[in-house]
## 1
Amino acid sequence: MSCGGATGNFVPTEHQHLRYNPLRASWVLVSAHRMRRPWGGRVEDPPEEPMPDLGNPLLPGNTRANGEVNPDYDGTFVFENDFPALQPNAPDPGSGDDPLFRSKVARGVCKVMCFHPRSDITLPLMTHDEVVTVIDKWAELVEELGSTYTWVQIFENKGAMMGCSNPHPHCQVWASSFLPNEPALADRCQRKFYEEHGEPLLLRYARQEVERRERVVVQSCDWLAVVPYWATWPFQTLLLPRRRHILRLNDLTTEERRDLADVMKRLLTKYDNLFEVSFPYSMGWHGAPTGPAPPSLAHWQLHAHYFPPLLRSATVRKFMVGYELLAQEQRDLTPEQAAEKLRRLPDEHYKIRDGGLKEQKKE
Ligand code: H2U
């Protein structure tokens, strides 16, 4: 790894050091030498493979918690969350006069989007065309909800380990009248970089990662997936367009969507192949803020974050606890080591290799 100003005896896999995350203006402590320590901590039960539960409320034709019956869908299916965290007509709490007890109005909508009619077909196991359909639907939702709301957060919690409550492949879409903390921070950081350097931070970053190669996991004509230089989660990745300035999912061309579907399938197959388990993660898209009159956005570049918790095996995870909560983020494995492990994995899914899905699913 090339570190600007490194002294002769610095070895990133041996010597602890700090790395800067320019999207969050924060530092992460990298202590790769700790990978050698014995593990005496919690070992999770192996994540359960979703059993075909014919009563799952997300399946076509089934009844949801609010009594509505799902249509007999055969592609994606979007519905209003029956237990929404954001509602469109919440009253204004008023701002109050005390600087220590401030509040603000929060309005929005929450939707759930099923990716596929079958509960056992996750994104890497879907056909290329089926993944394109998911991307098209994401773009449509950004367009539709973005005309009213300031921020449209598409996110997927996958696996019980990441708090996912339903094994049916799905994501959530929360649109809000306010810019949430994380995108607000990404907005400030990208804007500052643009003002100082005259080009979008992530366009320059993608170009440099393609040249440096050591953190690249999957690369295509239009897209790049890397373990970012500043990754915190062991196998965290950043997925971003590498060739042109793109604000949001709905700005992608047909070709870019098809290419993205291919890169997502390859990345998620590698994730599943790492420990031969349906890999848990939280992922989400960050595109430029929306709403009726968004400010100047030349500094923004569309990107997706994948935050997977697994560290050493299908049962040993990374916790973000003591030092991370009270001091700062810390990791053991270097991002370059994580990228190399993922890069070397086959593009064929282990379930396809083992013939597990052949009878049910034909590409
Ligand atoms: P997870 O993405 O964390 O698994 O959440 C699934 C969402 O689906 C959850 O927000 C919603 C839950 O409220 N849901 C319904 O709206 N109706 C149902 O009948 C089941 C689940």
## 2
Amino acid sequence: MILDIVSYPDPRLKSICKPVEKVTQDLRILADNMLQTMYAAPGVGLAAPQVGQFIRMVVVDYSAKEDLRMPRVLINPVLELKGEVIVSEREGCLSVPMGYRSNVPRYSHVHLTARDLDWKLIDEELEDFPAIVVQHETDHLDGILFIDRISRLKRTFFDSKVKKWLRRQK
Ligand code: NI
């Protein structure tokens, strides 16, 4: 099932999400629906709060190839940020309107730990694009959007564009 995606400036996107305690049938269904929603968008990642579920779960596919899908479900992801600060070019988000994109500072490497749907431990080192994707998605679980990581000037410009855009939607 394709789920509705919560869009900025909805305050629910600022929620601090709760850890998942165990995998239930409902959680499996949610993960499956989130993957379908992500692929339909299309996107490379989607976090539970973006579909109005305030739990620490994200889905990602950083293969970015339509013919070779590599869906992953990350439960309670924890990142250790490593390496150097790099520029994530033209980052976007399914919850940020107008298809707005911006360069965002990110770390080049992360050490990721998480659980999968079988509650198996995921423990890996990621770099470059996969590292950026998990940083973006894990941020959502703490109520942070990529537009919270851009310069004050760009953010002010973006917010005024969104305001005008929202007025036109009514
Ligand atoms: Ni996002």
